[in-house]
Design a protein that fits this description.
- The complex is a heterodimer.
- By secondary structure, chain A is mainly α.
- Helices cover about 75% and strands about 5% of the residues of chain A.
- Chain A has a two-stranded antiparallel ribbon with strand order 1-2.
- In chain A, a hairpin with a 4-residue loop joins strand 1 and strand 2.
- The radius of gyration of chain A is 21 Å and the shape is globular.
- Chain B is about 75% helix and about 0% strand.
- A two-stranded antiparallel sheet of chain B has the order 1-2.
- In chain B, a hairpin with a 4-residue loop joins strand 1 and strand 2.
- The chains are: A mainly alpha, B mainly alpha.
Chain lengths: ~500, ~475
């Protein structure tokens, strides 16, 4: 069996094993074993991929194909390039860390969590439009119950809003996918083959590009479709926020790139300015939105809107440097946000408040969590040595490569958010971690447990690894963008 | 005329045999202890009949001078209806054993089979007269089924409503048929097909005829009867109306559109386009605020009928297989939901959505089945409903009808909202006001629920089912 399919089968087996699990101990063991195995499998995929990359110059490696619905040319086609491998690694790390951050959750929680993972991994390995879309939706729907049942605050409102907005995006998407299939001659659903044929008529490309980009953009928190994000992330339980902000939002960016831009390059070239403006607004707006938040989760959610906006912004620049930066940013943001949410979860679990005004002096109360938070903050504001710096640097250099005024102005506007990020991060760090202790009851609280530490340390290790050794990422990426950029340069 | 004409009708004849045997059984057994065996006998006989439909080949061809048509397509359609009726029988038992209905238990099965025979004739008709007789036979006894709980005012009201509306509809239809006959001088499908032109008399006749069928499928604006009847009728009848009766109407419409009115496709396309959009939108919007779960499913099934019309609209082969597949998956999903509703109603007598608050805590298995059912209806992967929706949208998109596909897709989001209401009640809401007790389902109903759940889970992932349906053309 193809090693990529195992990535889908492991969470499925975990799900089944959870159904027969009776007590909490057993549930934990199954979850840790399942997601640990998944992480190992993801690493194995990366190793295997690098080994094959050295000898092969195929666009997609570990390729495997199986006919599913012949009348519609629907296949179960899997294959990975450097981008998907990195996304798979990211998902595996965050999902694994998420298990430890939700240590005390019950069986059903982990069951839905596994279902969500099936969707995420299936999405990243699929090369068939139908299968990709199917996995995309599988990843979305468990969110409703994960937030609705185990969330906090206005959880029902947030869960419904999030589900409906994301599914609304997929309504755009499905129309677009049907458009792609039928206007390209209804002969294949395989992304690589459609791209190679490149025969979607220009008049159709315009509307299909808009529909698919918006469809995926909703999940990528593109302005003005980002409003599900703050409410959703704030209400979700810790590990769900981690997985959602860390991984699920990347599904959006990845899809924009893999489907919208890759299959409709001419339209992308001509219409990118519209979406550049929208994402540009998102980047700036998200950052300013974060400044005025008083709830830690809301602050982080707005910051996510800003950072994820930057991913789409970079992809739309349509050149190799910026796109590499986009992938780096996806990784960096995924790890960093997951870390943020896991730490906020730790703090909230003890203090039962996320309000910045009600906290202070945390560095004395829970030093481990506080130090981790400061590290995450530094990564977020782009301090050299952490992943954020590498990513944002690459993006801005790539964007500035364009000689036209429009893109340069937008780039300059986007760079200003670095400063704004510094404002809200440093202010929070100063207030919450170094300020006066606001509530004497907090002094009795304990620091992170071992499982929480494990989750945080794993994420920090990855953030630092990317920060000090970005060439490793580059090595995996190699020339994954070459076919796309070549494709784009024809016009 | 020789015996081979009858061989073509062996599904009808088989059904007739089951019908007669059960009728005699009911009469002979009376109120003796023998009635204990009625239900197993009825189910086994009908299951054998259903299996025969799948496994015994039927000779294709025309019988009685083109009055009756048999081909693999009609056999497949009848098999789908058989499955639906089988599930209804499995689910109806617990309710029929109740104090008020036990004495008339046998009649329920017999009447249902009579309507099924009518539906067979609708599908196999090669002449409008036979089609009309089929529709009458399928409609009139259905009113008895709706009014079966005769001590409940609502059920009686449902029966009265149904019979008034359905006779009105068939009157209108008959009127339309008289126009068609006036325009073409024949009632045989094969003779009419080349004569159909877009003159006003034919169009008028078509519109009246279509209105009659649209009533059965409950398309907007001919849907008014559905919510009241669905709410008042016994749950087994509601399930029957929402799945089997509706499917038969869709099949008959599909066949007549293709076999008779193919020449004026560009005309009825616009009529149906508007009706489809209206059906989807109205069904969805009205479903949002329903508090009674049976009424809720009435509106939901109206909008589902709208989605089915997406495949009917273009009259293509792709649309045909998509429609049959859609109906089959819809059958599994809706029947699973009604199986749960019936169990809850039998035990507690409640049909309000609030009864399902905290349902997952008290009845985890039933809640999971219900969740799978509504998610399948909403089109969530990897359940069957996702695949059936995809295929039906693809069949419309293949003809370039992207606007309609987009409207329908936006509406699936609205529908998701109200389907999530059920899921929210079961999984998220506090159990206040819910039933809170453990509900036991009898063995038959369990079989139906397991069967439907397996259908929901596997219909899409295993592509064989669609392959089987796709191999049958017009």
């Amino acid at each position: 069996m193809n090693i990529l399919s195992i990535l889908v089968i492991i969470p499925l087996l975990t799900l089944l094993a959870l159904f027969v699990s009776r007590n909490q101990r057993y549930v934990r063991t199954v979850a840790v074993a399942g997601f640990g195995l998944q992480l190992l499998c993801a690493v194995a995929v990366a190793v295997q991929f690098l080994r094959l990359r050295a000898v092969s110059d195929e666009a997609m490696l570990l390729f495997s194909d199986m006919v599913w619905y012949a009348p519609f040319n629907i296949h179960y086609t899997v294959g990975v390039d450097g981008i998907s491998v990195l996304m798979i690694l990211l998902s595996a790390v965050v999902a694994f860390a998420g298990v430890f951050s939700s240590w005390n959750m019950e069986r059903d929680f982990f069951a839905w969590y596994s279902l969500l993972s099936i969707g995420v991994f299936g999405y990243f390995i699929s090369l068939d439009l139908f299968a990709m879309f199917m996995f995309y939706e599988i990843a979305l729907i468990p969110m409703f119950l994960l937030i609705g049942v185990w969330g906090t605050g206005r959880k029902e409102y947030a869960a419904t809003k999030l589900t409906l907005m994301l599914m609304g995006g997929s309504a755009f998407l499905l129309t677009g996918i049907l458009g792609i299939y039928f206007t390209s001659g209804a002969t294949t659903m395989n992304i690589m083959e459609i791209a190679q044929a490149g025969n979607i008529p220009m008049n159709h490309q315009y509307w299909i590009f808009c529909l698919t980009f918006i469809g995926f953009g909703v999940l990528g928190a593109m302005f003005p479709f980002h409003t599900w994000s703050p409410d959703g992330h704030a209400s979700a339980p810790t590990s769900v926020s981690m997985l959602h902000a860390g991984v699920l939002m990347k599904l959006g960016g990845y899809g924009c790139f893999r489907v919208a831009i890759f299959l409709m390059p001419q339209a992308a070239h001509e219409l990118s300015w519209i979406f550049l403006i929208l994402t540009g607004i998102g980047v700036v707006y998200g950052a300013y939105g974060a400044v005025v938040q008083t709830d830690l989760k809301y602050m982080n959610a707005y910051s996510s809107v800003s950072h994820c906006g930057l991913v789409l912004f970079a992809i739309l620049m349509l050149n190799q440097t910026a796109m590499t930066g986009a992938v780096l940013q996806m990784l960096s943001h995924g790890l960093m946000t997951a870390l943020f949410f896991s730490l906020i979860g730790m703090i909230y679990g003890r203090t039962h408040t996320r309000d910045i005004r009600e906290m202070g002096g945390m560095m004395r109360i829970m030093p481990f969590a506080s130090v981790c938070y400061v590290i995450a903050g530094f990564a977020s504001l782009g301090l050299p040595g952490f992943s954020g710096f590498v990513a944002e640097m690459t993006i801005f250099i790539g964007s500035f490569e364009h000689a036209d005024l429009f893109r340069r102005v937008l780039t300059i506007l986007a760079t200003t958010t670095i400063v704004v990020t510094a404002v809200y991060i440093l202010r929070t760090v100063g207030k919450v971690f170094y300020g006066e202790v606001q509530n004497p009851d907090h002094l009795k609280l304990d620091d992170a447990h071992w499982y929480e530490r494990l989750s945080a340390v794993a994420l920090i290790a990855c953030i630092v690894a990317i920060g000090v050794w970005p060439s490793a990422v580059q090595g995996i990426l190699y020339d994954s963008f070459a076919p796309v950029v070549e494709h784009l340069n024809i016009f | 005329m020789d015996l081979s004409n009858f061989m073509m009708m062996y599904q009808e004849l088989g059904l007739l045999v089951v019908f007669v045997v059960l009728l005699l059984f009911d009469i002979c057994a009376g109120e003796t202890r023998g009635m204990r065996w009625f239900r197993p006998v009825a189910i086994v006989l009908f299951a054998l009949h259903t299996a025969a439909g799948f496994f015994c080949p039927v000779p294709a061809g025309e019988a009685f001078g083109g009055m009756y048509v048999s081909n693999p397509l009609t056999v497949l359609m009848k098999n789908v209806l058989n499955l639906g009726v089988l599930v209804v029988f499995l689910q109806a038992g617990a309710w029929l054993h109740g104090k008020e209905t036990a004495i008339r238990e046998g009649e329920y099965y017999v009447i249902t089979l009579a309507t099924l025979l009518g539906m067979y004739l609708m599908i196999s008709a090669g002449n409008f007269m036979l089609l009309y007789i089929g529709i009458e036979l399928a409609s009139l006894p259905t009113a008895c089924l709706a009014a079966y709980n005769k001590y409940k005012a609502k059920s009686a009201e449902a029966g009265a409503k149904y019979i008034l509306m359905s006779t009105l509809a068939s009157g209108v239809m008959m009127f339309g048929l008289s126009y068609l006959y006036g325009a073409m001088g024949t009632m045989y499908f094969a003779d009419m097909r080349p004569l159909v032109t877009a003159d006003w008399m034919t169009l008028l006749g078509f519109c009246f005829f279509f209105a009659g069928l649209a009533f059965k499928i409950s398309l907007v604006p001919f849907h008014m009867w559905a919510p009241d009847v669905y709410e008042g009728a016994p749950t087994a009848t509601t399930a029957y109306l929402s799945v089997v009766s509706k499917a038969a109407g869709c099949f008959a419409l599909l066949l007549t559109l293709h076999h008779v009115f193919g020449n004026i496709a560009q005309v009825w396309y616009y009529i149906l386009w508007v009706i489809t959009v209206l059906t989807i939108v109205v069904g969805n919007i009205f479903a949002i605020r329903q508090q009674d779960i049976k009424r809720f499913f009435a509106y939901s099934s109206i909008s589902q009928a709208g989605y089915i019309m997406l495949g009917v609209l273009h009259g293509t082969e792709m649309g045909l297989s998509a429609v049959i597949y859609y109906v089959l998956v819809y059958l599994f999903s809706n029947m699973a939901a009604f199986g749960v509703i019936a169990s809850v109603e039998n035990r507690t007598g409640r049909t309000d959505i609030a009864a399902y608050n905290g349902f997952y805590k008290s009845n985890p298995r039933l809640a999971l089945v219900m969740m799978l059912a509504v998610f399948s209806l909403a089109g969530i992967p990897p359940l069957g409903g996702f695949f059936s929706k995809f295929f039906i949208f693809a069949s419309a998109a293949a003809e370039g009808d992207y606007v309609l596909v987009f409207i329908a897709l936006v509406n699936t989001i609205i529908s998701l909202y109200y389907y999530l209401r059920i899921v929210k009640a079961m999984f998220i809401n506090a159990p206040e006001g819910g039933i809170g007790e453990r509900i036991r389902t009898d063995g038959y109903n369990c079989v139906s629920l397991v069967g439907c759940t397996a259908g929901i889970l596997l219909a899409g992932i295993l592509s064989g089912l669609y392959g089987y349906i796709g191999s049958v053309g017009f």
